[in-house]
Amino acid sequence: MYFRLLAFHVLLCSLFASCTKSDEDAVADIEAYASQKGWTLTDTAGVYVYIDSAGGPERPNANQTIEFEYVASYLDDVVFDATVTGVPVQLSLAIAMNGLKKGLPFFGREGKGYIFVPPAQGYKNNPPFGVKEGVVLVYRVHVRDFY
Question: pLDDT tens, 112-135?
Answer without folding.
Answer: 999 999 999 998 778 898 899 999
